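Standup notes
- HV: blocked on the assembly model, inputs below
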Amino acid sequence: MILHTVNKSPYERINLDSCLRVARIGCGILLLEDGVIAALATGAAAQALSVALSDKSVYVLGPDLDARGLRECDLVIGIKIVDYDGFVDLVAGYDTVQAWL
Amino acid sequence: MTDETPEEFEDDEYVGVVKKFMFINRKAPYGSIYGHEMQETILISTAFEQDVSVVFMDDGVFLLKKGHDTATINMKNVSPAYRAFKGYDIEKLYVERESLDARGLSPNDLLVPVEVLSATELGDLMEQQDIIISA
């Protein structure tokens, strides 16, 4: 399966939309850099991520959350926070990576 | 060291590992260098005789739009190179239907024959790849 990475805010670019349109059941989606903004439960992108979580794994890079003053309790329920080591494990664990730059 | 080429590496006999490469174009031409750079990457990849697929989605579909005329912006027209792809045995060109629809384009607006795939079909094809390079 593919690990999709999204590093742009959904409120600035369409990258997350395109990723979610193409992503297949069972794949992983990692939000990093400005991509972590999508994980906010109060944001307009939360709904689409909740749907994705029903059959895909969604991860967010902790250091990028911290840097932006976002906390675990601010996130859509079900999103897993990973650190840099976890990021490496994800890349190693999936077959391929697709970076939605 | 000797000057002799080992037998197993003679041009016609050596069969390397063939992997499935997918190149995904997502950005419009001329506003950034991505489309052009991807084109160069794809053409170089043919030297390694890999299994290459090329995808155009999001604003990347405009790379294939007919009728580019770049004379007045002083930039090289990128589109003739896509016509040359066939000569390099790059024949698997895919365009995402949702991206065409969102921009009011149809396959008739494109300058080379492509296979139009839904987002779901494209996702399935992506899952079959060994390596994905996207910009």
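- HV (later): unblocked. The mean pLDDT of chain B is 92. The longest strand of chain B covers residues 20-25.
- Next: hand off to the docking folks.
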